[in-house]
Amino acid sequence: MSAIRAILHVDMDAFYASIEQRDNVELRGKPVVVGGDTRGVVAAASYEVRRFGVRSAMPMSEARRRCPELIRVAPRMSHYKAESTRIFEIFNDYTPLVEGLSLDEAFLDVTGSRALHGAAAKIARTIKRRILEQTGLTASIGVAENKLVAKIASDLEKPNGMVEVTAENCRTILDPLPVSVIPGIGRQTLAKLHAVQIRTVADLRLAPDRTLEPIFGRYTQRTRERAAGIDNRPVVANHEEKSISAEETFDVDLCDRRDMERELLALAETTARRLRKSQLQAGTIQIKIRQADFQTFTRQQSQQPPSSSTEQIFSVARELLAVWLEANPGTRIRLLGVGGSKLSPAEQRDLFAAADDAAPDRIDAAVDRIQERFGAAALGRARTLHRP
Fold first, then answer.
1. pLDDT digits 0-9 by tens, 313-365
2. Contacts by 221-230 with C-beta closer than 8 Å and gap 24+?
3. Where are the domains of the chain?
4. Is 55 in contact with 107 (CB distance < 8 Å)?
5. Is the pTM of this model over 0.85?
6. What is the CATH number of domain 1-164?
7. Please, what CATH class does the domain formed by 175-227 belong to?
8. Within 10 Å of residue 77's Cβ, how many Cβ atoms?
9. Active-site residue among 105, 225, 247, 248?
10. Domain spanning 243-384: which CATH class is it, in words?
11. Is 105 one of the catalytic residues?
C-alpha cells in the first residue's frame, strides 16, 4: 500500500508589494500597489489596499478610483526574481519535487521527506519560519493530500496562515466554502450554479447529475470529484516553459499602423532575445491585442521550422496583426504582445546554408552579445526608434 501523499502549496503574501513595504519603511501600513502608471494594470496589491476592492490585474485607473490614496510603486522584476530564488532554495532543502507556478507560488511534494524532516505540517511551519527569518516576508501554506485541496487551503487564512486539511476534517473545511473556490468555475458558470441554488462546495458535491450535466456536460464527473477533494495530479518538478512572451501597455492608444508595427517589432525583439537566452525556439507565434475598451484578442500561427529569429518572429506577428486590422479597421490599441509557444531546444543551423540565409542569425547573435554586456537599451533596430 502506497504512503498517503503530503503536498504543500506555498503562496507568498502580496509578494511584490510586501517586498516594497519591507524595503521602504515609509510604505508599511500604507495602501501600496505595484504596477504601471495610469494606463497600466495592478501587478500586486498590499493587504491595506485590498480592503478597497483593489486586486491584481485591475486597471490602475480603476484602482485609483477605488482608493485615491493608494501609493503606486514601479515594478522591480529583477529584484523580485532574486528574492524568489532565495525562497525556492529553501523549498529545495526539503524536497526535490518543487513545481513552481510563478515567482511567488509553488507546490511541494514532501511525501518522501517526512522520515527526515517530520510531519508535513511541521515541514510547512519550518519553511514559513525560514522564509520570514531569511527574507523578512510571510507566506501562507496549505497542507493536504493533493494539489487541489492544498491550494484551496493556502488561501483560507491569509496572510501568514497555515491550514492543514486531512481525510478526517476535509468535509468540515471544504463543504461550507463558496463553490467559486473550485478551479475552473468562472463568473458565467457561477451564475448558472447560483440559478439552480448551488452555492457551496457541498451543494456541488451532492447535486444530482440532471442538475449538473446541463452546466458541465462531459466534465460533470470531474467537477464532482473536485468538489469531493479528489485530485490525482502529481507534483511535476522543473516544469518546462510553455511559452515566452513580451507585452506593453501604451501611455497613449495606438491609432497609426506604423506605430503599431514599430511597437510590434520591439516586442518581437524582446521575445526572440528571451528565446535565444533560454536556448529555445518557437513553433507557434502569437500576438495579443487589447483595445481601448479593454476587449482583448489573441491570434496565432505555426511556423516551420521553429525559430528564435527576430525577423522571422516579427514577420509572422506583423502578418497576424495585418489580418486582424483588416477585420477591425479604425481600432485604438492600448496593449500589444508577442509570444512564442510550442517550444523546443534550439538546433544549430545547417553549416552549409547559404551565407545570405545565415545573415539574420549572425545579426541576432551580435546584438545579443552587445546587449548582454551593455544592457538591452544599448543597441536596437532603427525601425524601433521614435516610438510614441
1. 999 999 999 999 998 988 999 999 999 998 888 754 433 344 444 455 555 66
2. 223/182, 223/184, 226/148, 226/182, 226/183, 226/184, 227/174, 227/179, 227/182, 227/201, 227/202, 229/144, 229/146, 229/148, 229/149, 229/165, 229/170, 229/174, 230/146, 230/148
3. 1-164, 175-227, 243-384
4. no
5. no
6. 3.30.70.270
7. mainly alpha
8. 11
9. 105
10. alpha beta
11. yes
